[in-house]
Design goal:
Blueprint (H helix, E strand, L loop, with lengths): L1 H14 L1 H4 L4 E11 L4 H24 L4 H7 L8 H7 L5 E14 L9 H5 L1 E4 L19 H14 L5 E5 L4 E2 L6 H19 L4 E4 L16 E2 L3 E3 L8 E3 L1 H11 L7 E3 L5 E3 L1
Parallel strand pairs: 1-2, 2-4, 4-6
Antiparallel strand pairs: 2-3, 5-7, 8-9, 10-11
Helix pairs in contact: 7-8
Pfam families: Glyco_hydro_1 (PF00232)
GO molecular function, one term: beta-glucosidase activity
GO biological process, one term: carbohydrate metabolic process
Length: 275
């Protein structure tokens, strides 16, 4: 994938970029990671998690190779780059795109022999909060909101990967499909957009933020049971009618006012949407 991406980037830059003025990036899924304890092994596990999550893709495209910890833990199962391939893939992105929803807590997990996969090679346990049971799965199934985690991700990527422009390409909150008065989503968006602004103020090179999602769709992990849309879609009706949720009206006002409005606004259902 890395070599194919670099080939497509070279083709675009050589034949189209001068005229179209476009840029080429890549998207990575992102969690912020907190060490479960302040022990040395948990701090190292947190760094290792970040190297696996971000470095697997961004390492070659920014620096020309995988993080050293990946090469050590994965060994011969990790493809290696020749010198010419390393030079070819290095710098093959103009921006970083991220999907971000939540944070995890990480602690060390001994690297053992046996069945090995991405999670085992990472050699960590993770959980959605300090009190959740540990899991070796790639991501826990339950997690609290943590807007500050998005700020930390944006600042980390700016510092660790050469200050490339960053776009938050997915960020949002799920709700039951029949909910229209989605105050939880409004609060979520307010806090995460605020966190993005805090990252900007602290020097993160953020160029864009996109809410997931404009309207309900078939979700990869939840099907039609949960929706991220600011517009509800009635999937029981063959016509698939749409209806604006509270978050759609809030977000519309937010954009029309360039992110600045009165402290309290009343939507047309009579509920208050704090901004």
């Amino acid at each position: 994938m890395i070599l194919a991406h670099a080939s497509a980037t070279r083709l675009y830059r050589e034949q189209y970029q001068a005229v179209q003025k476009g840029v080429v990036g890549i998207n990575v899924y992102s969690f912020w990671t907190y060490p479960l304890t302040n022990s040395t092994v948990d701090l190292e596990a947190t760094k290792r998690y970040q190297d696996f999550m971000f470095g697997w893709t961004l390492g070659p495209l920014v620096f020309g190779d995988y993080p050293q910890v990946m090469k050590t833990n994965v060994g011969s199962r990790l493809p290696s780059f020749t010198k010419s391939q390393s030079e070819f893939v290095k710098g093959a992105i103009d921006f970083i795109g991220i999907n971000h929803y939540y944070s995890v807590y990480v602690n060390d997990r001994p690297l053992k022999e046996g069945v090995r996969d991405y999670a085992a090679d990472m050699s960590v346990y993770q959980r959605g909060s300090r009190t959740d049971p540990a899991t070796s799965e790639y991501a826990p199934t339950a997690y609290p909101d943590d807007p500050e985690g998005l700020q930390f991700v944006l600042q980390y990527l700016t510092e660790a990967y050469g200050g490339l422009p960053i776009y938050v390409q997915e960020n949002g909150k799920a709700s039951a499909n029949d909910i229209l008065d989605d105050t939880d989503r409004v609060e979520y968006l307010k806090s995460y957009i605020g966190s993005t602004l805090d990252a900007l103020r602290n020097g993160a090179n953020v160029k864009g933020y996109f809410v997931w999602n404009f309207l309900d769709i078939f979700e990869f992990l939840a099907g039609y049971k949960l929706g991220f849309g600011m517009y509800r879609v009635d999937f029981d009706d063959e016509a698939r009618p749409r209806e604006a949720r509270l978050s759609a009206r809030w977000y519309s006002r937010f954009l029309k006012n360039n992110g600045i409005s009165a402290q309290s606004e009343v939507d047309d259902t009579g509920h208050h949407a704090q901004q």
